[in-house]
TrEMBL record:
Pfam families in the record: adh_short_C2
This protein's UniProt keywords: Oxidoreductase
The name this protein goes by in its record: SDR family oxidoreductase
Family: Belongs to the short-chain dehydrogenases/reductases (SDR) family.
InterPro entries: NAD(P)-bd_dom_sf, Sc_DH/Rdtase_CS, SDR_fam
């Protein structure tokens, strides 16, 4: 599904984490089509984007790699937009939740987001301009089921977004989040394939369909664009009406 919205990102460089699949891939693709240079950070190096795309392989679950990768990118690029998209959901009933898995989810979904926001945000503050878009979730608002670590991490992303937005708004750096609803990506292949769960989910979405990665990318383009110049600290649901139901 194409995105019927455009914005001029010519001359801007965006870093998108987890840009090789799903929502991150769609965001990178849409930014490229709107004139941006995109530096994609992902675990395995792939070059499946057209345009001015620079792939950088990095395991963002490793704090040392997070710092060295950010330093490497900042040496070569002036980064105007950061999209903290890479994320992980490990599911277990809470009574059996291995704390190691809990830590892996917090590491990628929270600690890496915090550190990349600092590392890429500081030069933005120095120039007095920049945009950060974080990927929150419906589970920033609700608890979900067997996804306690993920819900806790996405709750943190939403609150973190508002806190940093408050501190940086007057300094010219806009920080916002997108909270996708049910989006048909790799993360949800099991839910889409489960006939009963799929029907239950569709019954709860007023728009009557799963979202696409492109639906989320449209919001990420809007938030990165100057059309969103007075938008700070928002957590924008892109959910086909799910949250309001
Ligand atoms: N799909 C949905 O319904 C949905 C809903 C709400 C929020 N989200 C959020 O949107 C974001 C993108 O999810 P998606 O649906 O495209 O799923 P996805 O699984 O396709 O994408 C996750 C991305 O994160 C990357 N990643 C995971 N661990 C990594 C690591 N250690 N180092 C580097 N990269 C790593 C993966 O390679 C992948 O590209 C995530 O933050 C997710 O929590 C998705």
């Amino acid at each position: 599904m194409d995105v019927p919205f455009s914005a001029d990102l010519t001359g801007r460089t965006a870093v998108v984490t987890g840009a090789s699949t799903g929502i991150g891939h769609a965001i990178a693709d849409l930014y490229l089509r709107n004139g941006a240079t995109v530096v994609g950070l992902h675990r395995r190096e792939v070059t499946e984007h057209a345009g001015k795309y620079i792939p950088v392989a990095a395991d963002l679950g490793d704090p040392a790699r997070v710092r060295s990768t950010a330093a490497e990118v900042l040496r070569d690029h002036r980064v105007d937009i950061l999209v903290n998209n890479a994320g992980l959901n490990l599911r277990h009933p809470f009574e059996d939740f291995p704390v190691e898995d809990w830590d892996r989810v917090q590491q990628l979904n929270v600690r890496t987001v915090v550190e990349l926001t600092q590392l890429f945000g500081r030069p933005m503050l120095g120039r007095g301009g920049g945009v950060i878009v974080n990927l929150a979730s419906m589970l920033s608002f609700t608890g979900g089921f067997t996804a306690s670590a993920y819900a806790a991490s996405k709750g943190a992303v939403a609150q973190f977004t508002k806190s940093v937005a408050n501190e940086w708004a007057a300094k010219g750096v806009r920080v916002n989040a997108i909270a996708p609803g049910f989006i048909d990506t790799e993360m949800n292949t099991a839910l889409v394939a489960d006939e009963t769960r799929n029907r239950q989910i569709l019954e709860r979405i007023p728009a009557g369909r799963w979202g696409t990665a492109q639906d989320v990318a449209g919001a990420a383009l809007f938030l990165a664009s100057d059309a969103a110049r007075f938008i700070h600290g928002t957590v924008l649901p892109v959910d086909g009406g799910y949250l309001g139901r």
